[in-house]
Amino acid sequence: MTAPTSKRPRLPVIDIARGVAIVAMAIYHLCWDLSYFRFIPVDVGYDPGWVLFARSILFSFMVLVGIGLVLAHGEGVRWRGFRRRLAFIAGGAALITLGTWLTFPESFVYFGVLHAIALFSLIALPFVFTPLWLTGLVGALAVALPFFFSDPLYDQKWFSWIGFWVVPPPTNDLVPVFPWFGVTLFGVVLARLLRGSALEDRLAAIRPRHVAARALGWMGRWALVIYLVHQPLLLAVIAPLGMALGSQEAGRELDFLSSCQASCEATGTTAALCATYCQCGLEGIARDDLWEPVFTGLVSAEEQRKLDANNRQCSALIYPELEDAPAVE
C-alpha cells in the first residue's frame, strides 16, 4: 500500500451522488427539527416512511465511503491525505458528541454518521487491496450477522456501537459497525469492479453542464463541511421560532392530554373525571419540569418520586373520599 505515482481522473458523477445524499440528509434533518418543535404533526423519528428515507440516505453515505476509499487510494494509499481527512472527520464527530451532549444529554450522539465514517474508513482501508472475493464475503457477513445474533449486553451504550443489541439505547443517531460496515465494503467492491473498466472511462468523460448538477457536484466535494454546519444552522432558526410560538410546548401538552385521557378512560373512569385528572397531571408536570423524563422514559429516582406524588394528588382530586387513592394511570 504505497503512495501512487500518478492520479486517476476524478469522477464528477460521484461528487454529484454525494451532493444528492447531503441534500437528502438536510431535508431529513429539517423535517426532524420541524417535527421535534411540533411545526408538523408527523413523528419523523418513528414514522415508517421517514425511517425508510433515513435508512436509504445512510445506505448511500456508507456505500459512497467505500467508493471514495477506492477512488482515492486504489493505486496506493496517500497517507498524508488519508490522515488529514480522518482527523477532520474524527474532530467533527467529537464536536457532534459534545454539541448533542449539551443539548440532549439523555440521548446525545456517541456513535453517529461521522463516528462511523471515521472508523469504517480506517478498518475498510485494507480491504481496498485484499482479494475481491474476501472483501465481498466479509461485507456480506457483516450485514447478515445482526439478523442471526443479538444479546442484551449490546443494549448498553458502551457496547451498542457494535450493533448486536436487543433494544437500542436512547440516542438521536446510532450507526453500528454491524451491519453498516458491511455496506461500506459493498461500496469498496463496487468501486474495485469499476476501476479500469470501460464504464469508468465513460463516467470520467461526463462533465455536467447544468447549473443544478454543478451545484450538487460542489456540495459533494464539500459534503463533510456541509454535514457539520447544516444542522446547527437549521436549529439556530427553528428552535428560537418554536420557543417563541410555543409550538413544542403546545404539542407536548396535547400529546400528554390525549394519551392520559385514553389511559384513564380505559380504567372505567368517566370522561369528565379523567379530564380533571389529566389536567391536574399536566399542571404537575409543568410545575416540576418533568417533560423530558415523561417523553423519553428516562426517569431518575427523584423524578419518579415527584411523578408518584403528583399522581396521588390528582387521584385524590377526582376521588375526594379517598385521601390515599391509587393513581389512575
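the 2nd protein, sequnce then structure:
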Amino acid sequence: MAKPAPAKTFFLFLFLFIFSLPSTAQDSARHFFNKGYYNISVNREAAIDYLTKCIEIDSLYTEAFFHRGICYFKGSRYEQALNDFDRAFELNPGLSIIWMYRGFTYRNMGKTDEALNSFSRYITQNPTDTTAYSYILRGKMKYELGDFTGAVEDYDMALKLKPLEEKYQYYRFVALYDNEMYRKALSAADRLTKINPDFYGYYFYKGNIYSKMGKPDSAIYMYNISIIKNYQNADGYFYRAQAYQQKGDLNKALEDYNTAIELNPDDGSYYSKRGNCRLEKSDKTGACKDWEEAGTLGYYEDFDKVKKVCE
C-alpha cells in the first residue's frame, strides 16, 4: 500500500489539530476551567494557573473565581481567597455556599466575628440545610466568643436536623458544661452514653459533672465505669482520687493518685494534688516532696505551700 505523500500528511494533521481546538472563547474558557477543576486535588498551583487562564478569557466565569478561591484558601492565601469569593458572589449572589467558605477563611485568619457573620448569612439562605453543619460551625464561633448559650442554641438546631449525630451531641455537652449548666450537661452526657455506650470518656465526663455538683459518690460510680472501660486512662484514677478526697476517704484517694502517677509520671498536677492528700494524712515530708516534684515539672498551683509548710 502506498504511503501518503508528505504534504497530504501535513495538511491532514493540521486539519485534525485545528478542529480539536475549542471553537469559541467560551469553549476555551471552559477547557481551562475543566483542567483547573481536575487539578484542584492533584496540583493546586497548576489548578490556580488554569483557572486564572479561564478568567483571563472570560472575566464573568463565576465557578472559576469560586474554585480558585478554594485553592487559595487551601494554600493559606486567605486575602486572595476572600477576593475571589467576593467576585464570585458579585457575579452570582445566589451561590450561597460562598458564605461557608468565607466563614472557613475568616476562622483560619482568627477573625471569629467575621466567621460568625458569614456562617449566619449562609444559614439565613439555607435554614433547613440537612447537613446541619452550618449550625455547628456558627455554634463553634459563638463558643469561642464566650457565648455558650448561643452555641447551645445552634447545636440544638443542628440536632433537630440530625438528632443521632454523636459529635453534635458532644459539642452541645461541652458548651453546657463550660457554661456551668451541670444538670443539662448531665442530660447531654446521658444521651452520649446511649449513642456510644462503650466510650469510657462519656462516663468520665459524667463523673466530672457529679463532682462539680458536690456528689462524690455518684462521681466515683461513674469514674469506676470509665476505668473499667479503659483502665489505662490516668485521668480516671486522678479524678476519682479527688472524689475520694472530697468525701474524706484519704487512703483510697492516695491509692488512686499513686496509680495515676504510675500511668503518667510527667504530669505535675498529679504530684501536687497527691501532696495535698498527704498533708491531710499528716505526711508533711511526703507532701513537700510531691510539691517540689510538681514545681520541677512546671506545675506551680500549690507551690506556695512549699514556703508556708515545708520551710
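The CA atoms of residues 58 and 90 lie 15 Å apart. Residues 10-21 have pLDDT under 50 and may be disordered.
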